[in-house]
Amino acid sequence: MLHNKSFVKKTKGGKVIRQVREHYLRDDIYCGAPSCTICNTSGARLSASPSTILVLDTNVVLNQIDLLENPAIDDVVVLSIVLDEVKNKNLSVYNRLRAICSNPMRKFFVFSNEYHRDTYVKEMSGETKNDRNDRAIRVASQWYQKHLGDAIKVLLVTNDKENKRKASEEGICAETVESYVKSLDRPDLLDLLVRPSSEDVEMEDVEDHRPSKRKIIYAEHKPMSEITSGLHRGIYHQGKLRVNRYNPFEAYVGSESIGDEIIIYGRSNMNRAFDGDIVAVELLPQDQWQGEKSMSIASEEDEDDDDVHLAPNSADVAPRTIPQQSSTGEINAGSGRPSGCIVGIIKRNWQSYCGSLEPMPIPGGSRGVAYALFVSKDRRFPKIRIQTRQLENLLDKRIIVSVDSWDRQSRYPSGHYVRTVGKIGDKDTETEVVLIENDINSRPFSAQVLACLPPLPWSVSSEDLSIPFRQDLRHLRVFSVDPPGCKDIDDALHCIALPNGNFDVGVHIADVTNFVFPGTPLDDEASQRGTSVYLVEKRIDMLPKPLTEDVCSLRSDVERLAFSVIWEMTPEADIISTRYTKSVIKSAAALSYVEAQARMDDSRLMDPVTTDLRNMNSLAKKMRLRRIENGALTLASAEVKFQIDTETHNPLDIGIYQIKEANQMVEEFMLAANVSVAQQILKSFPLCSLLRRHPTPTKEMLEPLLRVSAAIGLNLDVSSSKALADSLDHAVGDDPYFNKLIRILTTRCMSQAVYFCSGDLSPPEYHHYGLATPLYTHFTSPIRRYADVIVHRLLAASIGISKLPSVFQDRLQLTSIADNLNYRHRNAQMAGRASVELNTLIYFRTRPTDTEARVVKIRSNGFFVFVPKFGIEGPVYLTTRAEKGSGEWYVDEQEQKIKKMDGSFSYSILQTVQIHLEVVEPQPNRPKLQLTLI
């Protein structure tokens, strides 16, 4: 049956035209119930004989997705109109709902009510879209009940009072979510329910043991219309809130409108914003701006101080500000960095948080309900108040909690329990917490994904060798150099001396796209995961292990498919020519960095592979020198290496990762391949190439580095990357760690390198500051990075061996892919660091240690130190909480020192100090590595 939908549309020229869209209605859309005697049941997803089938309205899905993910909720009909509305309103919830619906273990069935002849509803005059959608949901519920008969109860679940009232009038069974869950006799499920924000005040009253005074704690958020107007007029400034991991009362908002970071100091000024929220900020008067000297390191005890929440007693609840004191205790005016207060939330970044519970010292609630404060493992997030019926069972567990609301009359946000991760302190539990906190998908690959893999065992076939564009390079002496124990080998090298004195040099990369085809479940999964994640003791793969460790891995003595970049190079490492080809290789050796270095260093070895290594190393040194001469930076980070017990998986030893010449040799050729490929794909596809850029740091970003260098008498020229690189090379001192520390401090002033679509920016913006190259991309690690998979497809199309997939015609989708890759890449980095921190805690728990450290950042109540031996950084307090504000110490920003008032003692930047390392637990279930001065 054909139904015409008509609507009016305004053209760019201002004309109003009527458009008619044909809407096909069918009567062969099935209900999904196996017991149905009318429908085809081959695609049925519901239970064989359910007592009740649930139909959900949109708001129930949007607000109660945590409940729906619990296996206790089943036999659910998801209407297509609800699915579409959820997709438009919240893509994250939509993806979670789709995951439930596609899970064969769950009884969720998607019913296309908008295309069924009996459930499609026409729009009525004067009816809002929301009212029409509610009516469509009621019509579908009514149809299901009539269709299935009285043997099965069809229940509409809605929290909308009006929708529920109309349903009852129309003879439809309807209940609220809470009412339905209570009928299941599963009290634990009630903990999963999202609470309306109106309950915040009621719970606050219970918490405070007194009748409601409706005390206003936070300023009211401005409406979006006022925020938008204020942003246009320059009154407000937009940016992402980043909370200091060492001080949850200190945060920053990067603002493009003023070209600097705005400091947000104190919970009142943060005004209920969470780390990661997009916020609108109003600058405070300049005499209230914060200077470095007024910034302190917060202790765990500070989080229980009511003063961090309370606003002043004024009618308009103005944000509380913290005056800036000089060494004499007087208020400084007109100094410091831009400081502000948050006036509104533009986009929330509420997620699920991992941590533990602490009971609230109040009488128990009704019907066994207890109130508790959830304490996140990550100090950047405030405590969250929840109510639970299983408190005693949860006190020794790591749990996940979601935020529901944060009322301005409430000291804490309100949330609800989601699920239990495991027992506190158990290593597997704490590792899973790391993955959850960083949104890492560690679930096993689905059957649909695994079905995309080639049959095993796999080997190169005669068909692979007969393909015209695939060159047989098995005769080349190819080898790989990787970290010890590496199984997912995605790059190999060769270097052959030519008769003319030049070298034939190749970088061979695993041909992942020969097995991962666009639009398949395998490709979709890799696209979502974005990257493999490397923890201390394990790896979370982007692709299934049969591909990463066998089919694609360029192991020694086996034939494998590759994508090769081959140059002719002079002995001075000048590139004469470049060619790109798909290939078949057979690696002669899979070496570790240590093995490769040992071969090059052993003058007795003259075998062909060792000779190739030495020739490559010679070329790499010249390439590296040329890059540095062009302005490439050699930066540093504190990479930590653990020795892991093979049985317990606990750390046995910890130290700084040592970089060898062999590491630098491989890096140099990977960089060269990435640059060559970037040039090739951009030449062919100037509007849809995936590239990687590193923005030039602003003057404000480099200010902390310049302040430190000036204080220690070091002249750093930051006018260009070349000038900075030269300055860093000359930054040497008596301390063997001095240069590395300066490079680490420089690294922290840089922005992140990011992926982008070439059509989104102009060529000058493509520049990679750190590598000092106008073009760069990622091509060399397709086993572990999806960006490289995309680039392989671009390169294959650019040399005419395959067609460009259709996604490259969709700029918006490409940009979305790049955004996801940046998000996943950063999360993988954060998860890696969190894994290092977890293993550091485990190591020092039984090994209190005295060691040497360097001061790297000054604060008003102490300083941060870097421990070179272990690659650890952390705070050292000079004043206790009781002494805070006593004026015993003050910060000299000019000299980058913290001094005693009487001048008897001081600590300066980069000074060597002796510290004691020990694991302590100042708050229950929140162990930390404490650094104290000896």
UniProtKB/TrEMBL annotation:
Residue stretches making up the RNB domain: 470-801
Main subcellular location: nucleus
A GO term from the CC aspect: nuclear exosome (RNase complex)
SMART domains: PINc (SM00670), RNB (SM00955)
Compartments where located: Nucleus
Names of the cofactor(s): Mg(2+)
SUPFAM superfamilies: Nucleic acid-binding proteins, PIN domain-like
Signal peptide: none
Family recorded in the similarity comment: Belongs to the RNR ribonuclease family.
EC number(s) on file: 3.1.13.1
Residue intervals of the PIN domain: 52-165
Keyword rRNA processing found: yes
InterPro entries assigned to the protein according to its UniProt record, in alphabetical order: Dis3_CSD2 (IPR041505), NA-bd_OB-fold (IPR012340), PIN-like_dom_sf (IPR029060), PIN_dom (IPR002716), RNase_II/R (IPR001900), RNase_II/R_CS (IPR022966), RNR_Ribonuclease (IPR050180), Rrp44_CSD1 (IPR033771)
Superkingdom to which the source organism belongs: Eukaryota
Keyword RNA-binding included in the entry's annotation: yes
Example of a GO biological process term: rRNA processing
Sequence segments annotated as region (Disordered): 290-335
Gene source species: Medicago truncatula
Gene: 11424636
Phylogenetic classification of the source organism: Eukaryota, Viridiplantae, Streptophyta, Embryophyta, Tracheophyta
Protein name: Exosome complex exonuclease RRP44
